[in-house]
Specification:
mainly alpha; two-stranded antiparallel sheet; 11 strands; about 5% strand; zinc ion binding; zinc; Znf_SWIM; zinc-finger; metal-binding
Length: about 1300
């Protein structure tokens, strides 16, 4: 018999395969996380010394265990392994020999190795099989047999330690390795209670190995539970990853050089450099050095971890925080419970209140992973108690109580009383709890997640709204969920459930619904990501039907709540069902009008109906070499293209959701295979669409209109299908830097670098790679003609998604292969007809292609300029702003129902027009110096852009480009800028625009740069471009300025030509608008006598009709300044006829003009003064103003202007004679009237002011010969009339008698 067979137990002694052991009824009543163990003495237990840690055993075979026990049913589709595992099974293979490798394996050297459940292998070749529970049990049985045969018999409990023990049997090396591997597999996959239930006697070395290997070996998982965003996996639903995350690999991806530990070393302690590469960055806005994981590493490296002890499945130790400037040194006790390579609970004296583990838990965990040989290892405490006799047990209890009497004495006495009572509850159940014995069989095996803290954190972030970076924090939590899903951690769905519960409990939902207002954009984006994550969760390829049913019930419950947000805001019923067919007939379109409300959870609810059992789908994702069979059965022809490559005919967003699910759950290769099948399907669909269009092209071009064939846009879709496919393909081509895990504190990341990876099962001569497929599918999706979605948020989401995809496209460095793909796809889009947004004829409601075309133009220009301009010029159109053509009556039913008017639902029209402008500006810049292309672009701008502000912006851009500071001007581009400026002038001539004056000034500047002929042109055609005021005050004045003449270096004939045009313009404007242009016209015509006289006559003719006194006074002052006092007097006289100054308007702005006019008349002579005084008396009724004029006229003699032919008498004028007598009488009358008016509503606080007013009146009265008599009579009348105002009259008597 071979040596190994001597150590086997017969298999028929075991319980039925893969069945759970029957539980002892005495063990009922245990609670989760605390297992109950029997207290009877068990046969074969050995007393004596403490338990040693497992020794390093050389060489041997190793088993490929699962990374977790979730989905222990086997491969990707839940098919369990059929063969039992034995020493000769394919699952047991010989590993590396040598003491170094063996020691690393024995002590935790596998560390970072995460093995995924195997998928169906290519070509049917058998791969390594995952161990089912029966296989692991058999492996543990073999280990137990080896140890039982090799170990000496155990003495009975309490036997003398000097009892002789027979020498152990010599086990062969293969058997020793098998025993060690049994401990590894058992520690990873079996609950210790199950191991105990299957075997009556478990050798102590086997127990030690199971306990030893039950602690987690991956630092990445510790990091995942102690930091935000530990991975750089981009979430398709969220539109991108935060900057600076390192790439988190799934369980099935090769770790290679990125492992934290060293498998080949006897002591698997990572170097500091390697350790520094493990953690990811902080959440946005947080320094990465403050992460608990990094702090934990620093504490570990500083030697802060001490007193580490592992008792069974419980690890404890102390961690000392060093003193700081503000805090003293603190030591914290840390306790960790674990089971099957997962930490199930943590406790730390620091009182950490956060979702993730604190730095002290991290430090202790990493100490156990990196320094396992320095950790004291003991079996569960119950095993030690089993080895004690009565005296030892009593001593143990008494010492324990003495050491902690202040804490445990009351509890100890209570337990003692219950044990001594035969009827107590504690005596009804056999056994006692053991916190170090691992989890129960019925306990869920998952990592510790503080659910209460998750709820509190989400609630806090939601309550903060959009402040304090709460949106970024919530996105980080979503990224953490995706990371957990990728690691196939059941806490991913659990954490998402907790987050969703808090989202649904957000009080703002009810408030928004009650007020009828929509939620904020940031909040909407968070809900979108939440819905996309649930689609990903329910499409988990290895979830059970029970899990899916549970999720479905919960999702329906949330979806039925009234406050549940709709999928597209208030327009949540416009998109087809997730399981809709690829083609949609008219009946489906009609039914879309009555589809029930769709919430953010509707797609995930629909996703629960999807499955992965389709044989064609399984073959696609299982092999890179799946091709069409030689003999196809009926219907199989639709499953492959002409090259024999498989197709996947499913609703495109749904198929992409499958890709996202595979990618997110750690199946990148499978996601890649399905992506290629989807792209092959899209290619075939594109070819067929081109064939259809060729037959309809003539009819569509004649009609000039078309229908929307794609009712559902892939860009801006809730499932982000194009982004998902693009990310899946580019991740396969990404070149990872050697230092890709080193993250700076600022969180900045280098742009990704890609390389071409050939597509499997593809003709090598085609040069096709996953990178070229990524570019191709992005162009397909972006170029799809699609209807503008309903609602502001849905439209905004289209542009955001479009910008995200273009941002990723711009990261690609275009080489010859990618340029060829780009050219080919652009040609197909231009020829795509109604199926392409770049086709010759598009629907009026089609989403514009401006942003997409701008990228294509910039990318194509260096390689194919003609194609670039053709594509960009066609994309300039914006049909929704055009007048509806008579042929545009082919709206689908759903379009007719929601588009009753021109464009009321295009909420983002301003954004569209700005993108259109940017595309035009890009073409103008590129066409600099090429007159033909510039003329073509100019025509496209004039035809398609309808906003004057945007055309003006284009004109300004063209002007800046054409006039660089360090180079000569480009005449062709300057002319284009001038043409655009002239168009803006025509568009805004009859409309109000606050930037109009800026536009006019800029146009004159532009015309000046072009040359004198441009200036002459705008002067001659001013009436089509400017208002009369603009033409005279801005245009003509600027043209005639000294700076312009110097700038153009004009000769005399050119100056005269410009001056003549300006004078002609001025006279025309003065005739059309004399009120606003007369003064400017006079100024411009000063140097030409005939023109000046003509302008003056225009003013005189308009003075009696439409001009105001202020305009006439201004022109009169100008005339006096220019030396025309008589003309100034005539204009001032005309102005006085339009003026009316009331008695109480003593601060009127025209007072200065009246005083100036009177002074001018007085200076001209007695005749002019006599002519103007009647006008003053008629127009001015304010006593103070009249008295001021009277006093000025009496101070000097008239006729001081010195006009030739006039004689000045030099005598002062008397107030008793004309013309001042009339002015004096009017002034006295004004004072009397004003006095009575003021006394009507006077208050005591104005008495003093009134007395001063009477004093001024007396001065005026005294200018008359009998003035003192008139004033006395006036005062007496006041006393009589207003005798009721006793106090006032008293003041009058005191002052005036």
């Amino acid at each position: 018999m071979p040596a190994l067979e001597a150590f086997r137990f017969p298999c028929w002694l075991l319980c039925p395969p893969c069945s759970s052991p029957r539980r002892d009824p005495r063990e009922e009543g245990g609670r989760k996380g605390l297992r109950w163990r029997r207290t009877e003495r068990r046969k074969g237990r050995r007393g004596g010394e403490g338990v040693r840690p497992p020794s390093n055993e050389p060489g041997g075979a190793h088993v490929t265990p699962s990374s977790s026990c979730e989905g222990a049913g086997g491969g990707l589709w839940g098919a369990s392994s059929s063969a039992a595992v034995s020493s000769s099974s394919p699952s047991v293979r010989l590993g590396r020999s040598g003491s170094g490798a063996a020691a690393a394996m024995a002590e935790g050297g596998e560390g970072e190795e995460l093995l995924r459940p195997p998928l169906p292998s290519a070509g049917g070749s058998p791969g390594p099989k995952r161990l089912c529970s029966r296989g692991v049990a058999l492996l543990v049985e073999e280990a137990a047999a080896v140890e039982a045969a090799a170990a000496p018999p155990r003495p009975a409990p309490g036997a003398p330690s000097s009892a002789a023990a027979p020498a152990p049997l010599a086990a062969p090396p293969a058997a020793r390795v098998l025993a060690r591997r049994g401990g590894q597999a058992g520690g990873r996959q079996l609950a210790f209670e199950r191991v105990e239930g299957r075997f009556q006697r478990i050798p102590e070395p086997v127990q030690r190995r199971i306990v030893y290997w039950s602690f987690p070996r991956s630092e990445r998982e510790i990091c995942m539970y102690s930091s935000f965003q530990a991975g750089r996996q981009d979430a398709p639903g969220s539109g991108g990853a935060a900057a600076g995350r390192w790439r988190q690999q799934g369980p099935g991806e090769e770790r290679g050089r990125r492992r934290c530990g060293h498998r080949g070393a006897a002591n698997p302690v990572p170097t500091p450099a390697a350790a520094a590469q493990v953690p990811g960055p902080a959440a946005p806005g947080l320094p990465s050095e403050g992460l608990p994981f990094r702090r934990g590493i620093r504490l570990l490296e500083a030697g802060a971890v001490e007193n580490v002890l592992q008792v069974g499945f419980h690890l404890s130790g102390t961690v000392t925080e060093p003193a700081t400037a503000t805090e003293p040194e603190m030591t914290y006790r840390v306790a960790i419970s674990f089971d099957r390579c997962k930490i199930t609970s943590v406790t730390c004296g620091c009182g950490n209140k956060d979702i993730f583990y604190c730095a002290h838990v991290v430090a202790l965990s990493l100490y156990r992973i990196r320094k396992p040989d320095q950790v004291k290892l003991r079996l569960p405490i119950s095993e030690t108690l089993f080895q004690m006799n009565r005296d030892q047990l009593q001593k143990f209890v008494q010492y324990l109580i003495t050491a902690h009497h202040t804490e445990v004495l009351p509890t100890a006495q209570k337990l003692a009383d219950e044990i001594l009572s035969s009827n107590s509850e504690i005596n009804q159940v056999h056994g006692a709890p053991d916190p170090t014995a691992g989890a129960s069989i019925d306990d869920e095996n998952c990592w510790h997640l503080d659910e209460e803290q998750v709820r509190e954190q989400v609630k806090l972030f939601l309550s903060q709204g959009g402040y304090y970076g709460s949106g970024k924090q919530l996105n980080s939590m979503f990224a953490k969920v995706r990371e957990m899903l990728r690691m196939r951690d059941s806490n991913g769905a659990r954490m998402l459930t907790l987050i969703t519960e808090q989202f649904m409990a957000d009080p703002r939902l009810a408030l928004w619904r009650q007020q009828g207002t929509g939620m904020t954009d940031k909040c909407r984006q968070l809900w979108d990501e939440l819905g996309a994550l649930w689609v990903c969760v329910v499409l988990n390829p290895h979830c059970t039907l029970e899990e899916k049913s549970c999720w479905l019930r919960q999702l329906r419950k949330w979806g039925d709540m009234e406050v549940c947000p709709l999928e597209d805001g208030n327009y949540g019923n416009e998109l087809p069902n997730i399981t809709s067919a690829l083609t949609q007939n008219s009946s489906h379109r009609q039914s879309s009008l009555v589809r029930p409300r769709r919430t953010v959870f509707t797609r995930s609810i629909e996703g629960c109906d999807l499955h992965w059992q389709d044989s064609h789908l399984q073959r696609i994702i299982s092999s890179d070499f799946y091709i069409s069979p030689s003999y196809q059965r009926e219907g199989e022809g639709l499953l492959f293209n002409s090259q024999g490559q498989p197709l996947w005919l499913e609703h495109v967003p749904t198929a992409c959701a499958r890709v996202d699910a595979l990618r997110s759950h750690g199946y990148p290769k499978e996601a890649l295979r399905l992506t290629v099948a989807i792209i092959n399907t899209l290619r075939l669909q594109q070819q067929r669409q081109l064939e259809i269009y060729k037959h309809q092209k003539k009819e569509l071009l004649q009609r000039g209109a078309t229908t929307i064939t794609n009712l559902e846009s892939w860009v801006g879709h809730p499932l982000n299908p194009i982004g998902c496919l693009f990310l899946t393909l580019t991740e396969a081509c990404r070149v990872e830097d050697e230092n890709c895990l080193e993250i700076s504190d600022a969180g900045d990341s280098k742009p990704p670098v890609y390389q071409h990876m050939p597509v499997a099962n593809c003709n090598p001569e085609s040069g096709e790679s996953y990178l070229s497929l990524a570019l191709e599918v992005a162009l397909m999706g972006m170029g799809q003609q699609r209807v503008m979605p309903e609602g502001l948020y849905a439209q905004d989401k289209v542009w955001r998604n479009e910008e995200q995809i273009i941002g990723r496209l711009q990261e690609l460095e275009l080489d010859a292969v990618l340029v060829q793909t780009l050219r080919k796809q652009c040609i197909l889009l231009l020829e795509g007809g109604p199926f392409s947004g770049l086709g010759e004829v598009i629907h009026r409601e089609s989403v514009p292609m401006h942003t997409f075309a701008k990228y294509l133009f910039s990318a194509l220009l260096p390689h194919d300029a003609d194609l670039a301009y053709k594509l960009a010029l066609r994309s300039m159109r914006l049909p929704v702003l055009e007048t509806t053509s008579s042929g545009d009556v082919t709206h689908p039913h759903h379009i007719v129902s929601v588009v009753p008017s021109r464009y009321p639902r295009w909420f983002t029209l301003g954004h569209l027009e700005s993108q259109q402008c940017e595309l035009a500006s890009t073409m103008l810049t590129a066409a600099k110096g090429d007159m033909l292309r510039l003329r073509t672009v100019l025509e496209a701008i004039q035809k398609n852009i309808h906003s004057s502000s945007l055309i003006f912006k284009l004109a300004q851009d063209a002007f800046k480009i054409a006039t660089p500071a360090d180079n000569s001007s480009d005449t062709t581009l300057l002319n284009v800028a001038l043409e655009l400026g002239l168009q803006v002038m025509r568009m805004t001539l009859s409309t109000l625009n606050w930037r109009r004056r800026e536009m006019v000034r800029w146009l004159v500047t532009c015309a000046t740069e072009v040359g004198v002929r441009a200036l002459v042109s705008i002067l001659q055609s001013w009436y089509t471009l400017f208002t009369p005021t603009e033409a005279t005050s801005i245009v003509a004045a600027t043209v005639m300025s000294h700076n312009t003449i110097l700038r153009l270096s004009l000769d005399y004939p050119q100056r005269e030509e410009l001056a003549s045009c300006a004078r002609t313009l001025a006279l025309q404007c003065a005739m059309k608008d004399p009120q606003n242009c007369a003064l400017s016209a006079l100024t411009l015509c000063e140097k030409d006598h005939i023109a000046f006289e003509t302008a003056y006559q225009i003013v005189i003719d308009a003075a009696s009709t439409g001009m105001t006194y202020s305009q006439l006074f201004t022109i009169a002052r100008y005339m006096e300044h220019r030396g025309y006092p008589l003309r100034a007097f005539k204009l001032a006289s005309l102005a006085m006829t339009h003026l009316n100054l009331a008695y109480n308007q003593d601060t009127h702005p025209a007072i200065n003009d009246v005083l100036w006019a009177c002074a001018l008349s007085h200076s001209l002579g007695k005749n002019e003064l006599a002519a103007i005084i009647p006008l003053v008396v008629k127009s001015v009724h304010c006593a103070t103003v009249l008295s001021d004029i009277l006093r000025r006229c009496t101070m000097t003699a008239p006729g001081l202007a010195g006009i030739p032919g006039r004689r000045n008498s030099g005598k002062l004028m008397s107030t008793d004679k004309a013309p001042l007598r009339q002015l004096l009488d009017a002034t006295i009358s004004a004072y009397i009237n004003t006095t009575h008016s003021r006394l009507t509503h006077i208050s005591p606080r104005h008495y003093g002011e009134f007395i001063e007013f009477l004093s001024k009146a007396r001065e005026t009265f005294l200018l008359a010969q009998d003035g003192h008599i008139q004033f006395a009579q006036f005062i007496d009348n006041l006393k009589q009339i207003y005798k009721g105002k006793k106090k006032l009259m008293l003041l009058v008597r005191e002052r005036f008698g």
